[in-house]
Structures are given as structure tokens and as C-alpha cells.
Design the sequence.
């Protein structure tokens, strides 16, 4: 067995803790395929269906899945990073139904400002130093920060979902 060499300074090296693995976020193309999927929350209770995706206005990366809560309940958003595949036609979000039911509402084809997104994050109890809420910290309230994903239909026209 070979002896380990000592450092010249004589100090011992500290063991580095491994960095947490970061989950690769889905692309706009991948999230566009979520439209129509059912979203289940904690206790496998249905939260609604994905009816749209909102992209960051600066880098065009998906930030929000827009969820239709029911025929009369309106739509709200769940951060893309908080969703996981739950099968071929389902997604899962670790949120209780009541929290989503009480979250801020917005239209699937409405641009969101930094103030809108902060209010949505707060209604979902996302801490201001975490995820999307942290990304919005330096953006001005009235600045448009998220836009609906525009999908091109088969004839080449663009439609907002």
C-alpha cells in the first residue's frame, strides 16, 4: 500500500461535500408536449390540466406550467421545476390541492410582470430566495418577465396557448 504524501504546509485537506445534483430543466419543446396532461398533487388529488407554458421573457426558458383548475375556477401557474413526470399522460407537483386552489389566477395568454410573478410565488409559498422568486429579485415590478409559449400550427400560423 502506498503512503499518501503530506502537503508541504502540513495542513490536512478538508473533505469536500458533494454538490447537490441539479435536475436538468425541460426545454420549451419538451414542455409544449405537456399541454393537455393532467397534473396531480399531494395525495394523488387532481390539480387540473396543463393549458399553456410561460417562458422567461429574457432567455425563453420555460418557467411556468399554466394549469386549468376546473371549468369555472380559472387558471394559475406552477413552476416548471416543481413538476415531474407521473406517467405518459400525467405530471406530479408536490403541492396540496387547497394551496393551488387558492393561488393567484391569470390568463394562459397573458404576459406576466415581475410583480405578477412575485405575487404568484408568494401565493404558492415559494420563499423569495428560492427558484423563480430569487430570479425575479432584481427585475422591476412592471417589467414583463414571462410570456406565453407560442406554438406554430401545421399551416405555419402562430397561435398562443
Sequence:
Amino acid at each position: 500500500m502506498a503512503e499518501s504524501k503530506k502537503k508541504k504546509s502540513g495542513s490536512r485537506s478538508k473533505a469536500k461535500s458533494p454538490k447537490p445534483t441539479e435536475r436538468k430543466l425541460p426545454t420549451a419543446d419538451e414542455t409544449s408536449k405537456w399541454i393537455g396532461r393532467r397534473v396531480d398533487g399531494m395525495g394523488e388529488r387532481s390539480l387540473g390540466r396543463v393549458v399553456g407554458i410561460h417562458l422567461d421573457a429574457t432567455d425563453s426558458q420555460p418557467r411556468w406550467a399554466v394549469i386549468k383548475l376546473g371549468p369555472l375556477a380559472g387558471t394559475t401557474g406552477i413552476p416548471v421545476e416543481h413538476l415531474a413526470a407521473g406517467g405518459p399522460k400525467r405530471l406530479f407537483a408536490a403541492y396540496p390541492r387547497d394551496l393551488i386552489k387558492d393561488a393567484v389566477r391569470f390568463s394562459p395568454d397573458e404576459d406576466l410582470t415581475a410583480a405578477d410573478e412575485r405575487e404568484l410565488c408568494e401565493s404558492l409559498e415559494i420563499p423569495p430566495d428560492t427558484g423563480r422568486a430569487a430570479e425575479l429579485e432584481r427585475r422591476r415590478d412592471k417589467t414583463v418577465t414571462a410570456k406565453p409559449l407560442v406554438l406554430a400550427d401545421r399551416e405555419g400560423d402562430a397561435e398562443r396557448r
Residues 28-152 form a domain with the Photosynthetic Reaction Center; Chain H, domain 2 fold (CATH 3.90.50.10).
